[in-house]
């Protein structure tokens, strides 16, 4: 076999492994209490650091909680957030999801809530977006490029733009972390419920006031089995060339 055909075979094998990982990466909420080795958790953070970061600013930080006392202190906060979610947004099944399947998901959420103190590890991605460095000359060029309507739109949507800019610097790394966890046989799920009580979470974890948190990711060895994810068909969500 020549070098080109060997490389093609290797790439194909890598692709199959990656797609298999993504297609079986369920949100796994039932975790065994056994600890996850520090070196394994560092592998997850390394995968996150490899993720894209807007402008290559790399202003992320990761809080990794494994101490039992700290986790026990977070458990009441987690419960309050989950209860608030289940009483509002999470009260009804999403459109297209049958009640039985949603009931199983809620049961897993409640299990995680009730056993949160036993979570082996919790990872909290944080980001501090640096102050922009913009000069008058740049602002003039900015206004010329966007035009009056564009400038007005940006002025009216600045809060959303800032949130998306920060999120785009963090969430690719979080997805890498989840993929790495699945590849290593670890269960994980990404949540943002903690944002309902973010100040209390930050206080409990000593996170600086000017540092924003973007997720809370419980990690551990799964009690259940990985399996195929259930998602909308590609044909239902793709728009070619235009809407």
From TrEMBL:
Residues 26-221 form the Nitroreductase domain. Pfam families: Nitroreductase. Coiled coil: none annotated. InterPro entries: Nitroreductase, Nitroreductase-like, Nitroreductase/BluB. This is Nitroreductase family protein. It comes from Streptomyces brevispora. The lineage of its organism: Bacteria, Bacillati, Actinomycetota, Actinomycetes, Kitasatosporales.
């Amino acid at each position: 076999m020549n070098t080109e055909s060997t490389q093609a075979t290797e790439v194909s094998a890598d692709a199959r492994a990656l797609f298999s990982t993504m297609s079986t990466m369920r949100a796994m909420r039932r975790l065994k209490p056994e600890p996850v080795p520090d070196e394994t958790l560092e592998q997850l953070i390394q995968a996150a650091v490899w993720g894209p970061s807007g402008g290559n600013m790399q202003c992320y930080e990761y809080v990794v909680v494994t101490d039992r006392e700290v986790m026990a202190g977070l458990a009441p906060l987690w419960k309050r957030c989950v209860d608030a979610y289940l009483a509002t947004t999470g009260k009804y099944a999403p459109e297209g999801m049958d009640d039985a399947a949603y009931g199983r998901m809620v049961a897993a959420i409640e299990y995680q809530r009730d056993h949160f103190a036993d979570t082996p590890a919790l990872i909290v991605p944080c980001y501090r977006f640096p102050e922009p460095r913009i000069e008058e000359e740049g602002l003039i060029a900015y206004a010329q490029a966007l035009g009056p309507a564009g400038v007005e739109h940006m002025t009216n949507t600045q809060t959303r733009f800032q949130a998306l800019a920060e999120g785009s610097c963090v969430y690719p790394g979080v997805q890498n972390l989840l993929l790495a966890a699945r590849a290593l046989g670890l269960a994980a799920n990404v949540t943002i419920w903690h944002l309902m009580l973010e100040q209390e979470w930050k206080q409990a974890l000593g996170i600086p006031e000017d540092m924003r948190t973007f997720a809370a990711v419980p990690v551990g060895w799964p009690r259940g089995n990985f399996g195929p994810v259930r998602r909308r068909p590609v044909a239902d969500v793709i728009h070619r060339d235009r809407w």
